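User: Can you help me understand a structure? I only have the sequence.
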Amino acid sequence: MKRMKLQLRSKNQNIKHLKLTNMENQKSIDALNTLIEINNDRIEGYETASRETEETDLKALFAQLAQTSHDCNEELIEEVEELDGTPAEGTKVSGKFFRIWMDVKAAITGKDRKAILNSCEYGEDEAVNTYKKVLENDAEDLTSDQIAIVQEQYELIKADHDTVKSLRDSLVEAD
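Assistant: Let's start by predicting it. Here is the structure, written out as tokens:
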């Protein structure tokens, strides 16, 4: 009887540990899925921006920026799947508003280069801020390897942001 109680207690502790591990994994999955969503936003945003311009240099830039997010998502999806999670497939609500706003603004401004870059820079601000928030608020839920991945991706996203901002600022200065 005593042995059965010990086995039962051990089994309950294992179940409790599994539940804690799953809860901890869920926090990691949620943080990583937030980044997947913002990358999905970037991909859709740059596909929209590419359609809104006829300038080949901007089309090439937007394809490059979308590719950054495709590459980031591949890593993030792999991490979520390793945690037995389901990778996010959608976009953030703010991203949807961003894309709608960009569509309207581009249509109104006659596909103005500066207006498109202003919209893109706004989207880049959102992406950079999302990565910052995950690094600041969710790092305790991520492994050191995951933090390294997110930090490396943050640097890539920040570099893309700075490229768009610099291009946009050069147009402002030319006015």
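Now, to help you interpret it: The chain has one domain: 28-174. The chain has five helices and no strands. Let me know which part you'd like to focus on.
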